Amino acid sequence: MSLAAMFTKSKGVHPPENKVTANKKIEKMPLPKVVYLPVAQHIGAPAKVIVKRGEEVKTGQVIAEAGGYVSAPIHATVSGKVSKITQGIHFVSGKPMDIVVIESDGNDEWVELDKKTNLSDMDNEEILKRIWDAGLVGMGGATFPTHVKLKPPKDKPIDTLIINGAECEPWITSDNRVMLEKGEKVLKGVRVMLKLIPAKKAIIAIEKNKPEAIAHMKKLVAKSRMKKVEVLGLPTQYPMGGEKTMTKEILDREVPILGLPLDIGVVVQNVSTCVAISEAVFDGKPMVERVMTVTGMVKKPKNLLVRFGTPVEDLIEHCGGMKDEADEIIFGGPMMGITQYTLDTPVQKGTNCVLIKKNTKADERNCIRCANCVNTCPMELMPTLYVAYAKKKMWEEAEAAFVDDCMECGSCAYACPASIPIVQYIKLAKAELGKIRRAKK
Ligand code: SF4
Ligand code: SF4
C-alpha cells in the first residue's frame, strides 16, 4: 500500500503543487481581434453551423445549433463578421470538425438577454431549457452537457450533490479564484441544482490546500441559510477531484465498473459550472467566456476571464510572453493536459488552464515490474498490463482487464521510474476497442 493510501480512501500521488497564481485576482482579458470557434467543444454530437460566411453576428448569438440531445449549441463570443467557416482537427480527439471564424468589430454588441429574478417563477423544464440554450457544459474539463447531467433518469434517485472545488491538478488556480471572487454565484448555481434535483444535501468539496476558499465558502453558506449545503475540506492528493475519487472519499461509495456517479445516487458539478448555471438561469447569459489560469514559463502568470475562441498566442502575449527555455504548450494541467502544436489553438469551454513548460520527458525504458503504477492507481487497475497488451495489440485482453474504467488521471505514468507513457498506451487501447465495437454494430 502506498503511503498516500494509508490516509485517504483512494490511492494517488503528490506532485509539486506549483499553485503560483493562487493569489492572482481574475483579470479580464482584452477582446480578441479574431475568434476560432470549433463546433465540438463538448462530449456528444458536434453542433451544426447555422451562420454563413460574411454574416454579421452579435455576442451571444447562436452560430451552431446542438446536434442532438447530448450536445450543446455554440455562441458567437464577440460581435463582428463571420470571415470563414473552415475545417480543423479536434484538439483532443484528432477528428476533423467545422470551425467558425469571426472577426471582431471591437464593439462587443450583445444579443438581448432574457433576465429572470425569481427561481420560483420557472418550472424545471424552463430552467433546463435555459441551461441547454446557453450551451452549458461541465467546465472542470469533462465538458459533458449540463442539461443532461441535471436531468438524471427517474430510476436513478439522487441523494447527494457534490460541488467540485477540489482543483487537484498542479498549477491550476482558476476554480480557487472563482470561489473567492464569485462565491455568491456558485451558491446561486447550487440553489438552481437543488431545485432540479431535490437531493438531501449538497457538499462543496475543496482540497485543504485552499484554506481561504474553504473559509470564504463556509461564510457564504452560513449567510445564505441554505441548510442542505455544507463545505468540506478534502485531503490534498491527486486525483482527489476525479468524480469517482470524490464519491469514494466523501461518501465511501464506489462507482461501479463502467458506471457513473448517478448509479450510486450522486451528481457531481464543478464550481465554475455552478457560476455558468447561475448566469444562464438568472441573467439569460450564454456561455461565451470562462476563468482560466495561464501559468508556468510565462513572464507574468495570471488568472484570466477569456472569451472562447481566443487563440493561445494572445494569452501568452498578454502574460508577457514565454520564457526563452519554454518549448511546450499544454491545455490543462501537467497530469491530464494535452500538448498543443500550434499557437492558433483556441480556448474552448473545457480549457481551464494553459501551462507553458519545458519538455522534460525522458526516453521510455523497459518495465522493471516495480508495481508503482498499480500502487498509485485510484481505480485499482493494473496499468502495467495495459502497456503490455497495447504493445502486442491484445485489445480484447485490455478490455477484459477493465481498461475502459481508467480515468486517464496520469498517476501511474507519474509514478513510473521507467518513464513509460502509460496513459498513451491506455488511450490507444481505448481507441482500438472503440473501432472494434463500431465495426460490430
Ligand atoms: S490506470 Fe488510469 S486511472 Fe489508473 S492511475 Fe493510470 S491513468 Fe489513472
Ligand atoms: S511503474 Fe512503470 S516500471 Fe513499474 S511496473 Fe508500472 S509500468 Fe512497470
What report would you give on this structure?
The chain is an alpha/beta fold and about 450 residues long. It has 3 domains: about 25-115 and about 285-355, Ubiquitin-like (UB roll), CATH 3.10.20; about 115-285, 3-Layer(aba) Sandwich (Rossmann fold); about 370-440, no CATH class. Helix content is about 30%, strand content about 20%. It has helices at about 125-135, 145-150, 175-195, 210-225, 245-250, 270-285, 310-320, 370-375, 385-390, 395-400, 410-415, 420-440, and strands at about 25-30, 35-40, 50, 55, 60-65, 75, 80-90, 95-105, 160-165, 200-205, 230-235, 265-270, 290-295, 300-305, 330, 340, 355. Strands 1-14-13-17-15-16 form a 6-stranded mixed sheet, sandwiched between helices. A 4-stranded antiparallel sheet has the order 2-8-7-4, with no helix packed on it. A 4-stranded parallel sheet has the order 11-10-9-12, sandwiched between helices. α3 (about 175-195) crosses α6 (about 270-285) and α9 (about 385-390) crosses α12. It is globular. The relative contact order is 0.14. Mean pLDDT is about 95; it is low at about 1-5. The chain binds iron/sulfur cluster (2 copies).
